[in-house]
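quick q for whoever's on today - can somebody do inverse folding on this one?? i tried earlier but teh output was garbage lol. tokens:
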């Protein structure tokens, strides 16, 4: 019995380790995707789609520069996933495995898989016992060389082609997002974005949006951005218009979290979700699902991470995207307020003292 429990604990540890590696990789590439995507988007906004494609022009140079920055996404993602699993020793093997993933065109999916391979490869290499005098040799020679060689060979000769085919299938599928399929995808993305306000489920939807950006499709990320922008705004409206349903501390917090919502930051709604999860989370999920579905249905697209009201100028079909955010916000506000009212009406009120 004890042996079974130990095995379960080890398995849980591995899952937590993989989760940590993935979230580390995603968090580290966010600034890169913001920089590359915004430079590309600004080039298209200022010089136009045709002007940014003329060789030798400023617009084309900026567009190409932004695209080159985004081209680093897969190696950096792979490197920092490996770093999250095996610390600094995993960085170079992770980058190298990511280069292999890029070379075989396995895309974002390949970057995730190569990061795991490099991370665990180095983790097992670190189990080799050696004299302390050789610590420097292990760190600057053994781990980077053999970690890169082993993980690179695995990517090139074992799993590279299947992963590349999987990525090709994802790219092909993304190009068909429209109509009912697009609405269903939007509902899923929006609900996930608002489920845990920046947690693992939110990050999974975010990762899918990044994968789409890496494939040249900004539609899923625009949907994600629409959903993640509304929780703070919806909660602020509810606390301002119906303060009696909230505690004083919540009313004060509600005065400022709309700013976080405008910046596309869902974490401002976390205290409200923690204090009343069965009312806040479902109401945000419904509004987020509606917002994301409208965004996809109207063809809004955003090739830059960090999507929010601040990136409206570089969003394709921005009016539709704003309509999506407004509609989702109103729906979340209405549902949240109704649920809060039901709770308020059921809560016993202190009786007023009767004067004689």
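ok took a stab at it. sequence:
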């Amino acid at each position: 019995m004890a042996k079974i429990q130990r095995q379960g604990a080890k398995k849980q540890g591995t899952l937590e380790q993989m989760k940590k590696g993935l979230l580390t990789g995603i968090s580290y590439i966010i600034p890169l995707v913001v920089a590359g995507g915004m430079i590309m988007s600004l080039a298209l906004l200022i010089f136009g789609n045709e002007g940014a494609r003329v060789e030798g022009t400023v617009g084309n140079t900026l567009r190409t520069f932004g695209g080159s920055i985004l081209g680093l996404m897969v190696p950096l993602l792979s490197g920092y996933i490996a770093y999250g699993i095996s610390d600094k020793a995993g960085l170079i093997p992770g980058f190298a495995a990511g280069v292999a993933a890029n070379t075989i065109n396995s895309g974002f999916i390949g970057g995730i898989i190569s990061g795991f391979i490099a991370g665990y490869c180095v983790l097992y290499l670190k189990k080799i016992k050696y004299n302390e005098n050789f610590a420097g040799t292990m760190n600057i020679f053994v781990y980077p060389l053999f970690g890169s060689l082993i993980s690179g060979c695995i990517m090139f000769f074992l799993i590279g082609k299947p992963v590349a085919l999987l990525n090709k299938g994802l790219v092909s599928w993304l190009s068909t997002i429209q109509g009912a399929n697009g609405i269903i995808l939007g509902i899923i993305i929006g609900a996930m974005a608002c489920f845990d306000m920046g947690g693992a489920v939110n990050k999974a939807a975010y990762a899918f949006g990044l994968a789409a950006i890496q494939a040249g499709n900004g539609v899923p990320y625009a949907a994600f951005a629409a959903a993640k922008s509304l929780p703070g705004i919806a909660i602020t409206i509810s606390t301002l218009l119906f303060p009696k349903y909230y505690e004083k501390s919540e009313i004060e917090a509600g005065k400022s979290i709309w700013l976080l919502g405008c910046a596309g930051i869902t974490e401002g709604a976390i205290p409200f979700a923690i204090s009343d999860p069965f009312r806040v989370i479902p109401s945000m999920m419904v509004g987020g699902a509606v917002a994301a579905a409208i965004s996809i249905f109207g063809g809004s697209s955003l090739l830059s991470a960090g999507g929010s009201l601040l990136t409206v100028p570089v969003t394709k079909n921005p009016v539709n995207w704003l309509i999506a955010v407004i509609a989702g916000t109103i729906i979340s506000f209405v549902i949240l307020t109704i649920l809060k009212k039901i709770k308020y009406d059921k809560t016993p009120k202190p009786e007023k003292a009767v004067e004689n």
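fwiw Residues 179-346 form one domain. also The two ends are 70 Å apart (CA to CA). so keep that in mind when u check it
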